[in-house]
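Hey, can you fold this one?
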Amino acid sequence: MPWRFLGRRLQQAVPVLLIVAVGVFFLLEIAEGDAVDAYLAATGAGDAGLAAQLREQYGLTDTLATRFLTYATRLATLDLGHSVAFDRPVLEVIATRLPVTLMLMGSAILVSGALGVILGGLAGWRRGGPADLTITVTALILNAMPGFWLGLLAIILFAVKLRWLPLGGIGSIGADLSGLAAVLDTVRHLLLPVGTLALTYLALYVRLMRAAMIEAADSGWTLAARARGLPERGIVLRHMARPALLPVVTMLGLQAGAMLGGSVVIETVFAIPGLGRLSFEAVTQRDLPLLAGILLAGTLVVVVVNILIDLLYRRLDPRVGDGVRATERRP
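Sure. Predicted structure:
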């Protein structure tokens, strides 16, 4: 049953979130400096009395046990604390930035996954031919390019030279848009960052899909289907492409965390006010409550993405929910 399968995945996610929550607290506790140090360095103030007053105000002078108890109590009530840098509740700051990152990351996953499946499938089906060579070489070139460099090239070409797309941001400054016009304006601003992030991870999915298609083409069930005289299109789609999707779908879930981390660079290059750029600001300003909230929110996003990937995996191979090992699965 899908609901029982989903329930088991949710139960497995609970200890993961608890372990991450405890680990985040202690990792940030052993980090040097705090938000007060960053504030004093930025303002040029060196008053020891002011520093002591601020640390007392933010609870930084309490014992480790007291701080952990306060942290756990707040976390149980979904209170992530107060951001020192933004002077707002952490949950409120994250809530304004998270949708932007989800939109960026979700679009990039869909684009890179779809293109990877199509191009990798074509390369595997036509292995050894011109299409295979062209796709493989292009994937290797993209894999060798750093994300920030690819983003800068895209800005120079499409924003500076051709002037087709905006330099960055998620909306036109000063434009009073609503409805469909606002949606189209956001899409126009996200084309470059989504394309850059998708191309950064595209090579991996192309190579996975190509290898899986070649393996499926040489398998016994594909040879048997050809021996029965089935149409080539049906053989490619049902006997080759469907089982070849399984490793690609698995990698999509595994790469969700890496793509979330990669959004830090992309959001910085394109000046997108998302969770990745917020984490950079939290680190530079030593805003530990905000950084802890960002790490927890990122963990939650990765867990949810992996649950969705598990459901998709089960859709492709229903025996996943029945405890069949990966080595025993056949289309």
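Residues 2-89 form one domain. Let me know if you want another pass with a different chain boundary.
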